[in-house]
Amino acid sequence: MTVPEPLTWDRRLLLVLLVFDTVLLAVLELFFLPLRIGVVPLPVTVVVGAVTTPWLVSTTAKLVRPGLSWVPLAVWVVVVFGLGLLGPGGDLVLIQDWRALVLLGASALPGALVLGGGLGRGTGRG
Description:
single chain; mainly alpha; 62% helix; elongated; disordered C terminus
């Protein structure tokens, strides 16, 4: 078993920046999830989460270290559930309808697939 070398200051700073981006995106996705145009719900933050969460995981793996690529996904989940269920002033920010489930599925699932290397990869079958 090999021990990974310690992170340089540049990589630590980059990891902190990526975690900050993750927190900021998770908060914005939560707060703009109930967006409507008239009576029609328009959850555009689902698309934002579906694109940015896997991108943050893969960017962390490429630029910082592959072993730390779980950090943005874990931070995103903690922020969404923490702020969504224990919001400011005790308010429930994570709305209780289909948009919350779509946000969780469309953001966390692609991030987990990128974290795991995608479907079917690593099974040893050619």
